[in-house]
Design a protein that fits this description.
Three copies of one chain form a homotrimer.
Chain A: H1 2-22, H2 29-50, H3 63-81, H4 88-110, H5 115-136, H6 150-165, H7 170-191
Helix pairs in contact in A: 1-2, 1-3, 1-4, 1-5, 2-3, 2-4, 2-5, 4-5, 4-6, 4-7, 5-6, 6-7
């Protein structure tokens, strides 16, 4: 139940980020919704395919698609009347990254994957939606940005596993992991932080 | 049987579109065939993975690959001796989009997916081959074009569902849906039509 | 056992190629490892999904990820102190292409796919990791290069099937196929060879 609601929230914020990325791309409204849907379901779909979880999460439950359409239309209308807040694309992306990273990790854990694999699966689930969005809208992928990105997902999932190893209940560790990802990502953007880069 | 033939026709037209997109890309003949194959089987492969249909449609039946190779070689030879008709890439793409959108929708329907999901699955199946082709040949994805694209697939699948709800037999509704997609897409290109764009 | 070791070697060389492709992309160390991991597991993951082999090869066995991390870190350190050898990215890519093409072919053969499909599956498995790497690091995909690329994979798998048809034991044919791919690819780069291109 909790995972279901978090899945829906993750889908909504990634749908918003898809709409914001599709601005100035001359797409019509239905095209924008298709980009929003690809962004919103991309990560979870990869997760379900890799873990062989069928039916895929959005296949038999229309709620996901309804949430995507409502979130996309609301964003389209909002952006028409007020300028989108500065950094809004990156903020929505940070929350989507965080939620899907932790969701991917939870499902990999439930499939008894070893800890290192849980981190990999969480990171892949978290970054996939945004990578698809950036490829389809012909943007430089956020994952290629200088500021901490994939690293935030790795740190958040590691924190989640650590908190559970220290005896915290899973939902608390989940929220803790989400906070780590979002704080690292937005902090990195705000103060222009980055790990040593590789040249 | 009918679905099988339509699958083959969709594979052939997308293979042709892959060859046309690979022109001027300095690929050798085998490389062109690989691009044609990726374009031709991309959408149906995603459909089968998402619906957990195994074996994947082209895995045990060589006919698909033979059709791809024949269509690709014929196009290569044709283009060598006569200029490709104007818009030929977009016409082949429009038919591939239409056939795979309706095929994806049919299979999703057979898996009892709800109507909204049938539309999403049809649209994704229809656009995937072309998106792969455009990424691999480094073109601006047709899905990002200003003229009606994903919207044509959505409208065609919706028309297909509506015609069935009105009591028309499935094969008739299928053909009707294909006509809607192709007419919308080619009409949009011909008269430069587009839905209101989102800025 | 042999396939397992070859899988590990393929994963290691593609991880190295991922690190080399991520140079000058301003990624931090963890970001580089994510690119290395995507490159290294991309082809095999597609292979396992298409053949419905679960669990996916890296999902329950941490060895793969450990090999990726060690290979990536070693490459990062090496490149810091000495210039990477000329063409090093393309050499690592050629070995990854060869190993995964033959591995994909072997698994497709084990799933009783017909010969033409074995060639297609091998080629797709071979090229996918590199295509993902090049898309994510915003490079012109090697598959689009003028020098023999996908054709090398096709020739290597065809040689592998032919050697078996001539009665050679499978491991010998495997090594023969790898040699064909690497020799064709590196020979094409060295002497600027290419098949007739399609214009």
């Amino acid at each position: 139940m909790l995972l279901y609601i978090l899945d829906l929230v993750g889908v909504a914020v990634f749908a918003i980020s898809g709409v914001l990325a599709a601005r100035d791309r001359e797409l019509d409204v239905l095209g924008v919704i298709v980009v929003a849907a690809m962004t919103a379901i991309g990560g979870g779909t990869l997760r379900d395919l890799l873990l062989d979880r069928h039916p895929i999460f959005w296949l038999t439950d229309t709620t996901y698609l309804v949430v995507i359409i409502v979130a996309a239309l609301a964003t389209i209308v909002y952006v028409r009347y007020r300028p989108a807040p500065l950094f809004s694309l990156r903020v929505a992306d940070a929350f989507g990254l965080a939620l899907f990273a932790l969701l991917g990790a939870s499902y990999a854990e439930a499939a008894q994957a070893p800890a290192l694999i849980v981190i990999l699966m969480g990171t892949m689930t978290g970054v996939t939606g945004g990578v698809l969005r950036d490829i389809v809208t012909a943007r430089v992928p956020l994952i290629m940005q200088r500021e901490i990105y994939a690293s935030a997902a790795i740190a958040g999932v590691a924190a989640y596993l650590l908190m559970q190893a220290l005896g915290l209940p899973q939902p608390v560790a989940f929220v803790g992991g989400v906070i780590v990802v979002v704080a690292l990502r937005l902090g990195a953007l705000r103060w222009n932080l980055h790990l040593p880069t590789f040249r």
